[in-house]
Amino acid sequence: MIQKTFVTDLEKCKALWDAFIHPKHISDLWEFRLCFQRHFNCRPCFLVLEDRKGVAAVLPLSYIDDLEMFVFFPGETWKAKTWLERTPVYLREGEFLPELYLSCPDRTFLRYMDISEDNLSPDLHVDETGYSLYPANLGFDITLYRKRFPNKKYKNIIKTIKSLTDTACSFHLNRLQDFDFIVKTSLQRFGRDSYLYDYRFRESFRDTMHFLHRKGWLRMVSLEINGRIMAVDLGALYRGTYTVFLGGADLELPGIAKAINMYHIDFAFKKRLSKVDFLCGDFHWKKLWHLDPEPLYQFLTPALRPEHEAERESASATTISSVEVSYMHSI
Question: By C-alpha distance, which of 253, 232, 246 is closest to 194?
């Protein structure tokens, strides 16, 4: 018989995380998530399933008071949706997954789940598509990546990059003060629709930047032209995966994002990294640059499904001119 319990003490949740969550992505680290927990201050509520053999499953949840909803820990929500991707779940055996879904509280919304085909079920639906690039799968040969493009298209990208970078261009690494440029350009472009308009997100990312820097994992790239900052990306390098979390670019110089995007990709091939993760966010450039699409999934308990369907219908009937998601560049 399976016993279900909820753990709400933060230190006990940390003990569960340390014991059962095996980090694969940098955002799987407890210290990374704690940067968001400090500012959002949501109540942790880890769901634990146990049987005679011990702990069978752990689902790290947080409770959002104003939404009356359970989401993945640490509950960093923007417009009622969490932001961090691929939150890990512990399963001693795969057969416990259906039981874990059934054990969720009535109002549970889980996003950006990285689920293998073997574990897909009717309760799961595609949430958004993540975009990555795997240099290892291309033998670390960037010419094979370039062959994904029509020849004329690739030449146009390189021509644009050269026209922007041939004059007094320089790249700089880990200038922490340039975080303010990301904030400024995001607010200029999106206003109140920017994640960073919410001080909790802004300061969570600032804390994350300092944490990554202390650990030696930060890769924050600033692009200057004629001594003026034109683009900044905040990323991290961890266990062979290069993740670009967010960035900002000067809107007065169209195409500058091409230069910094190509800089990331060149770096990944030169350093023989296994993966570059540009996260979710249906920016058109990710498809045009022939990145590898990876569907991530969502789970809603029955109590939330009518609300979610109504929201989807409303969104599909509205034309949205610009939406900020995880990565703030356009092509």
Answer: 246
